[in-house]
Backbone:
């Protein structure tokens, strides 16, 4: 099977995007704090519900001059949902066509993930904070293959019933209770916080937030703004701590939405809230709602709204180049969003894709300029779309080979030492 590696290496080599000279290494040696915004969609940014900003803190961060804010960044998850997002964000390899790569292959596959890359390029210590049981999505095994030094799962936190909602510890408590561990961590560190309160169907006790609820027939839609607002408040509290503790000054903070919160069927009820006419709403509009935030905030960073098209697969090379890490030898399917060579064709797991000018769904072409279907595409456009579709299908099949044939066991990048999962032991917090 190692011969299957050749087409992968050839694709990666010709697809590689060189760093942007004005951004390469600007964050070298900084701590990296990654904040996973559960089920948070880009349309919430700058959105007002009944005249009130849903996420005032994130809005201010989005428009901050020290934030690179990506307005055309898409989730690319399949059935693995959160775990697919984690895989793409930290390895730049897609999830699987069906199921979750974490669950099905995560225990035994070889990965070359952010924690191990940064350990070997800057001696970073790494940790994940997530208030759910460590076995969910098989994380406790996967993270050892990713090279995480620490995994603070629910056993490290006070998860009395009042502190927990659905999949785990409430976000304000996750951030608040993680500080005592974060302060002990050797710097530079790579620390990921996985939030969970803003999760379908978005229940939130009145005492945790009084943000107004919508009054559609769909409770998920009605509650979505309240849990997103709660998440926003938890982020503001965490940033206040980062600034007062001094950690903010020597950290690069990355925030991303993992996937949609409201599904296409929920969107029917969302329309009335968004003031959209159901008769003019279709597949194209549902596809546009698959944008999620991707923001990189760092003191002194030359920020600004970035309109280039991209997705979760592109995050790792983007982050590594900012940290001054050379990515040429890694098998990463994404490209640096800040590079002039960045590939703006965004592949979805189901082989659909978006580009700056067109959205192509099951072969139907839509113009992004006005959302209309291109019913009579010119020969030139048909040829261009066929080329894009071919690349998307090819790229996804190569990624599937990497996962399903565990190809990275046959490929060790120059200067990279394979991870030995037996070096890691995430003792439970119940000491
Ligand atoms: C589970 C939490 C939610 O620990 O991350 O996962 P999801 O349901 O979004 O995949
Ligand atoms: Mn999720």
Residues:
């Amino acid at each position: 099977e190692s011969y299957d590696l050749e087409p992968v290496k050839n694709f990666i080599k010709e697809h590689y995007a060189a760093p942007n000279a004005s951004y390469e290494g600007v964050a070298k040696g900084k701590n990296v704090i990654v904040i996973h915004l559960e089920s948070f969609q880009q349309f919430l940014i700058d959105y007002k519900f009944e005249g009130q900003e849903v996420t005032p803190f994130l809005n201010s961060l989005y428009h901050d001059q020290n934030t690179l804010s990506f307005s055309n960044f898409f989730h690319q998850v399949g059935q693995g949902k959160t775990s697919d997002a984690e895989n793409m964000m930290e390895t730049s390899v897609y999830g699987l066509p069906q199921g979750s790569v974490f669950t099905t292959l995560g225990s035994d596959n070889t990965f070359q993930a952010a924690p191990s890359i940064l350990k070997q390029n800057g001696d970073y210590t790494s940790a994940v904070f997530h208030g759910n049981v460590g076995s969910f999505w098989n994380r406790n095994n996967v993270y050892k293959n990713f090279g995480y030094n620490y995994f603070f799962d629910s056993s490290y936190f006070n998860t009395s019933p009042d502190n927990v909602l659905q999949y785990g510890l409430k976000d304000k408590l996750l951030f608040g209770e993680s500080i005592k561990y974060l302060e002990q961590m050797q710097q530079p560190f790579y620390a990921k916080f996985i939030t969970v309160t803003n999760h379908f169907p978005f229940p939130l006790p009145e005492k945790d937030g009084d943000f107004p609820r919508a009054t559609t027939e769909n409770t998920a839609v009605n509650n979505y703004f309240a849990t997103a607002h709660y998440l926003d408040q938890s982020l503001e509290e965490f940033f206040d701590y980062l600034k007062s503790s001094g950690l903010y000054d020597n950290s690069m903070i990355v925030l991303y939405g993992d996937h949609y919160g409201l599904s296409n069927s929920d969107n029917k009820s969302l329309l009335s809230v968004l003031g959209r006419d159901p008769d003019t709403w279709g597949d194209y509009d549902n596809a546009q709602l698959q944008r999620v935030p991707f923001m990189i905030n760092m003191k002194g960073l030359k920020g600004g709204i970035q309109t280039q098209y991209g997705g979760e697969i592109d995050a790792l090379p983007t982050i590594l180049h900012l940290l001054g890490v050379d990515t040429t030898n890694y098998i990463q399917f994404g490209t640096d969003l800040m590079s002039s060579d960045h590939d703006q064709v965004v592949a979805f797991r189901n082989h659909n894709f978006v580009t700056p000018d067109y959205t192509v769904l099951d072969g139907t072409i839509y113009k992004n300029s006005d959302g209309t279907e291109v019913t009579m595409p010119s020969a030139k456009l048909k040829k261009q779309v066929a080329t894009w579709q071919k690349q998307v299908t090819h790229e996804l099949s190569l990624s599937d080979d990497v996962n399903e044939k565990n190809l990275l066991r046959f490929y060790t990048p120059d200067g990279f030492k394979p991870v030995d999962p037996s070096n890691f032991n995430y003792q439970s917090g119940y000491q």
